[in-house]
Amino acid sequence: xxxxxxxxxxxxxxxxxxxxxxxxxxxxxxxxxxxxxxxxxxxxxxxxxxxxxxxxxxxxxxxxxxxxxxxxxxxxxxxxxxxxxxxxxxxxxxxxxxxxxxxxxxxxxxxxxxxxxxxxxxxxxxxxxxxxxxxxxxxxxxxxxxxxxxxxxxxxxxxxxxxxxxxxxxxxxxxxxxxxxxxxxxxxxxxxxxxxxxxxxxxxxxxxxxxxxxxxxxxxxxxxxxxxxxxxxxxxxxxxxxxxxxxxxxxxxxxxxxxxxxxxxxxxxxxxxxxxxxxxxxxxxxxxxxxxxxxxxxxxxxxxxxxxxxxxxxxxxxxxxxxxxxxxxxxxxxxxxxxxxxxxxxxxxxxxxxxxxxxxxxxxxxxxxxxxxxxxxxxxxxxxxxxxxxxxxxxxxxxxxxxxxxxxxxxxxxxxxxxxxxxxxxxxxxxxxxxxxxxxxxxxxxxxxxxxxxxxxxxxxxxxxxxxxxxxxxxxxxxxxxxxxx
Length: 486
Fold this sequence. Notes:
With 486 residues, the protein is α/β, with parallel strands linked by helices. Helix content is 47%, strand content 13%.
């Protein structure tokens, strides 16, 4: 993959140099006769939690027993629940549990905890040879300390893919001549969505304006960050912890045209909690979401009075026409709480074991997460692990992972660097335009019900003046979020 071929950023190069003098020479403080116990907080549930627990048990019975490490994992329910529990622990709130030895964390949250001085320096426990095994950009993402040392251990990553209801797509394609090639660009998706709306509207000529949405997306913030990156703009440019906001009007207009406008016109949609929910109810045909969402893609469409089975198609996420092939790099890593050498060393030993190719792919084959070692990112390695461990892998998850493995060499994975108030800034990207689109779509639907045509009903919302008004309010909101105190 392209990002794996790049040199690690300057801060992380400092880490690598430092490691030659630190991590590689550290003697184990562990004693198998007096094992150390570690607690791990995570947000895994269902099959993901079962897969994680199985690996923890395997570790405890093998390497953990040999080295004197015993690990216990605890699900905190959800990412927000986990973040709240961590913040309460750091603040010493009454009733809060003690800080775990290890916990799952996204970069923004880890950055907050690091600023509180509560994270262990993982560079003390990893050698240069250790680091070189991991995908470079995953290590770079974890170098959030002011001195460039590593704080986030990459354990499982994801990116975005497009998933399509193949059964209903083929019906539409047969009637209109649409082809999958059209869905490789965002502009193409918008054009296909318009054609789908018009086609479904034509199926009920006695009921005008009842066309259906074709496409939706999870994580609108990713649409902004990666869409702008594809167009040559880093919206959050961070150097030495200092943020520069890049919000050029021309590029943001393209994003507005290919998200807000089709949302308002009903070509795109967002109805349930996730877009896979909308495919299940037949309200959408396709969506862009995380690789880890593949397991939730439905096996059937469930209507009010009937249901029918559907097949699926997995494709790479669309890229803006003429844009560069960037895809999002996401997924929480694990951080280690600052404590003592014995606990920190033991925590890193567990994380190194968990991310070995065979173990990481075993977890990924259930969860849909990508492995973090360079050697593990291939279909061949995945097939080898499946055969050797006799794993049963859901076809959707398998196809999702192998699709990304196949596309890796042509992709550059990207995630913005951490900065103060990064979580607040991301919320602006996630909700500012999407909430407006949902609100304005309701007004358009009301106008349609009053007998107006779609063009008449949507006209007030898609003018250049409307864009200018949104653009100014968006910039104000983003500036306010990044300067927010406390």
